[in-house]
Amino acid sequence: MTGWAIVTPVKPLGQAKSRLRATLPASVAFLSGPDPLGALEAPDEPGDWHAEVALAMASDTVAAMLAAPRVDRVVVVTDDPVAAAALSALGAVCVPDAPGGGLNPALRHGASVAALLGGSDGRGSRGTAALGADLPALRTADLDAALRAVERLGVRAFVPDAAGTGTTLLAAPGRTPLDPAYGPGSALAHASAGAIDLTAVADGSGVGPSIRRDVDTAADLAAARALGLGPRTAALLAPIGSAFPAGRAAC
């Protein structure tokens, strides 16, 4: 076997992170144009700072996934052309949300694409996982440790979010179906369907905090800041001032 295939959905940027839009005011200091790292393209809607934040978070999350030694391939399911271009440039395989039926159908579609690609080149044959694109503090070591734990268990497993009710990572080793059940109370739904909660395993399975810290609100973003934001998100938020950090150390 080689490594893992990760499937991640990305909403159209103008619709992404509605709760974050409601709790994080647009920065009056935000300057239009390329970000300081030259890594982002401006969204279709000029001046949509929240869309830029959503893209920066997705870019940092996908970059961390791709840098993980245990990950062979990242399949992004999105209908947003700007997100697809930016994430493809990082090395992800981007496919349209052909089902168009919400999060779980998108994940099943992405898993099917990953299986087809893995069948042709063998990459991603260790298993398939779903991971959100809203983990801007994600560390490759935390992702690798979680995937290693799933390999040891040999069964479908998940990582609950920081609140304990949602799911950030769902992983199915080998040919085990991903069978996603995201939505309100997804942690309980995945556990009820037989998936193992990695945080409940006796040795803790090395589940680091960055893999649990998804961002839906400004408070979540502040918590991610405390862990250390990825470079694109940190650079975009830098004009706000001391409320956000300059970045994080290399993983």
Automatic annotation (TrEMBL):
One Pfam match: NTP_transf_3
Enzyme class: transferase
Catalytic activity, reaction form: phosphoenolpyruvate + GTP + H(+) = enolpyruvoyl-2-diphospho-5'-guanosine + diphosphate
Every MobA-like NTP transferase domain range: 62-172
InterPro entries (UniProt xref): CofC, MobA-like_NTP_Trfase, Nucleotide-diphossugar_trans
Enzyme Commission no: 2.7.7.105
Pathway: Cofactor biosynthesis; coenzyme F420 biosynthesis
Top-level taxonomic group: Bacteria
Binding positions for phosphoenolpyruvate per the UniProt entry: 167, 183, 186
Any one Gene Ontology molecular-function term assigned to this protein's record: phospholactate guanylyltransferase activity
GO biological process terms, semicolon-separated: F420-0 metabolic process
Keywords on record: GTP-binding, Nucleotide-binding, Nucleotidyltransferase, Transferase
Protein family according to the UniProt entry: Belongs to the CofC family.
Known function: Guanylyltransferase that catalyzes the activation of phosphoenolpyruvate (PEP) as enolpyruvoyl-2-diphospho-5'-guanosine, via the condensation of PEP with GTP. It is involved in the biosynthesis of coenzyme F420, a hydride carrier cofactor.
Name of the protein: Phosphoenolpyruvate guanylyltransferase
Source organism of the structure: Cryptosporangium aurantiacum
Upper taxonomic lineage: Bacteria, Bacillati, Actinomycetota, Actinomycetes, Cryptosporangiales
Name of the gene this protein is made from: fbiD
